[in-house]
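Quick illustration, no need to memorize.
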Amino acid sequence: MNKTIFIGRLTKDVEYNEEKKYARFTLALNERAGDKKIPLYINHIAFGSLAELAKKYLKKGSKVLVEGKFTQNQEKREQISFIAEKIEFLDPKDKTQENGDFPF
């Protein structure tokens, strides 16, 4: 099974490629190691209509749940990418409405 689920906050605004219809974004997560919190930064990419939604509604600091899968670069086996297949907006509805209408 190839499934990933991450909950985190965007570290910066979504980077969107209009020509190829994909969006890149990075989630910051907190990993616990004993008493310490260690930040992890996970890069994601979304395609098609999901990329357009990400571009329109996600901003730096947005809290989201991202479900997807990982893929490995066949030439550079140590390079792993995370492909977003579903994004759930976890910020309160009234906070997201400040930036415009919420899509759901």
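The CA atoms of residues 8 and 29 lie 5 Å apart.
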